[in-house]
Automatic annotation (TrEMBL):
<dbReference type="InterPro" id="IPR043502">
    <property type="entry name" value="DNA/RNA_pol_sf"/>
</dbReference>
<protein>
    <recommendedName>
        <fullName>Reverse transcriptase Ty1/copia-type domain-containing protein</fullName>
    </recommendedName>
</protein>
<dbReference type="Pfam" id="PF07727">
    <property type="entry name" value="RVT_2"/>
</dbReference>
<feature type="domain" description="Reverse transcriptase Ty1/copia-type">
    <location>
        <begin position="11"/>
        <end position="242"/>
    </location>
</feature>
<dbReference type="InterPro" id="IPR013103">
    <property type="entry name" value="RVT_2"/>
</dbReference>
């Protein structure tokens, strides 16, 4: 038996897409950190899927291209819809100031509904949401378990209805004819807080242009908030997120007592963490810098802190940047990949890719664990990671939007040697050491899933 007490109630400020506070919110939260693993919950009881941001961007881009309705909604007190499972014996100390009929001093309450804060509450709610959406007629995607879809009949307006969920926040995509029926079906099962046309979701300001059939994402309010939080709102602006003349290394980590004392009160990891959300949300232009600075988060030095401030200075001058997706043309999934070759002293390459549907929907820039012996090898590894992402994206989109994204998927590379390796083993004597896990791209080129095409570096910028 685990007793979870609740702290005194307090108000949390809720904001809008412009960073303005709109209302107060308070809720009763259980102290789930007191729960004991194996006694009060199992390890497989705590994972709850949420929609990947790349899935959200892809669904919104296609909705803009098809000129479908995009509505956002929130389910009020979502976790309370799910009841505790048999054997979930969790007890709650009554909050201060609460008196209940028949409750004697020293007695506790047994939870019958899932409460915010419990380890298993998130997963229990997801199971309730999944089962409910299945009853409405939607199918859960096998490739993103927080994306649900339904193929509509001509009588319903044709096309595809999709719902992407992040806990209790949902985005609904449907044609103008079917959208009222979808909202009515949800209202008959949940109490909704309707947000109207999608405009603010997961900290991103979203704007639809029905004439151009585009949708734009902005995190200007979020960036302005973190600039103020870390007192960088009046910092001198710069034009690049990273100084190209400064090479960061482990030798610059804090080693002396003076440096360690200087870095003691610098919120390096916290500031880097909030920048990561901007990087994965809309600001792909800082992704490389964020991943580079993350290597030194264990023991950053003054030079690393200066580089972090440089990124804040860049965001201060570019916080109005928006990510635009969609367009009049038919949706085409296209990829671009690259690597910095052997420019690093340790010969560990930085592999990067980006995939677009009228704009960037998925991107990555990561340092690889292996040492490369040639530029071709580094580019081939980058091509392999891009191929894996292309295959996942195609599986996701092909199930939700059948036959809309035709094969092969074009992935551009700027290295002729890597392209040749993806087609056959013509450089065997110089590339026979490459791990077999990077050779699977050749199989997908042969079966027509991927088309690896040359594109000069200057054309990729």
């Amino acid at each position: 038996m685990q007793i979870s007490s609740a702290p005194d109630s307090f108000y949390n400020l809720k904001g809008d897409e412009h960073g303005n506070f709109t209302r107060y919110r308070t809720r009763l939260v259980a102290q789930g950190y007191k729960q004991v693993k194996g006694l009060d919950y199992n390890f497989d009881d705590i994972f709850a899927p949420v929609a990947r941001l790349k899935s959200v961007r892809a669904m919104c881009a296609i909705a803009a291209i098809e000129d479908d309705e995009l509505v956002q909604t929130n389910i009020k007190s979502a976790f309370l819809y799910r009841r505790m499972e048999p054997g979930d014996n969790v007890y709650l100390v009554p909050p201060k100031g609460i008196t209940l009929p028949g409750l004697k001093p020293g007695q506790v309450l047994k939870l019958r509904a899932c409460l915010y804060g419990l380890k298993q509450a998130g997963r229990r709610w997801y199971q309730k949401l999944r089962d409910t959406l299945r009853q409405i007629g939607l199918t859960c995607s096998q490739f993103d378990h927080a994306v649900f879809y339904q193929q509509l009949s001509p009588a319903e307006g044709s096309g595809t209805t999709t719902i992407f969920c992040h806990v209790d926040d949902m985005g609904l995509k449907a044609n103008k004819k079917y959208m009222p029926h979808l909202i009515a079906a949800l209202k008959s099962r949940f109490k909704l807080s309707e947000g109207g046309q999608i405009h603010y979701l997961l900290g991103m300001h979203i704007t639809c242009d029905h004439e151009k059939r585009t949708i734009s994402f902005s995190q200007s309010a979020y960036i302005n908030c973190i600039l103020t939080r870390y007192r960088f709102d009046e910092i001198r602006m710069v034009t690049t997120p990273m100084d190209p003349n400064v090479a960061l290394s482990k030798e610059q980590c804090a080693t002396s007592e003076r440096q360690q004392e200087e870095m003691k009160n610098k919120p390096y990891r916290e500031a880097l963490g909030v920048l990561m959300y901007a990087s994965v949300g809309t600001r792909l232009d800082i992704t490389y810098t964020v991943s580079t600075l993350a290597k030194f988060s264990q023991n950053p030095g003054p030079t690393h802190w200066t580089a972090l401030k440089c990124m804040f200075a860049y965001l201060c001058g570019t916080q109005h940047y928006t990510l635009i997706l969609g367009g009049i043309s038919s949706p085409i999934l296209t990829g671009y990949c690259d690597s910095d070759g052997m420019s690093n002293p340790d010969h560990h390459p930085i592999a990067a890719y980006i995939f677009t549907i009228g704009g960037a929907i998925s991107w990555s820039s990561k340092r690889q664990d292996i040492v490369c012996l040639s530029t071709t090898e580094a580019k081939y590894i980058a091509l392999t990671h891009a191929a894996k992402e292309a295959i996942w994206l195609h599986h996701l989109l092909d199930k939700v939007f059948p036959k809309r994204f035709k094969l092969p998927i074009t992935v551009y590379s700027n290295n002729q040697g890597a392209i040749a390796l993806s087609k056959d083993d013509r450089f065997h004597t110089r590339t026979k050491h490459i791990d077999i896990r990077f050779q699977f791209v050749r199989q997908y080129v042969e079966d027509g899933t991927l088309s690896i095409t040359y594109l000069p570096t200057d054309s990729m910028r």
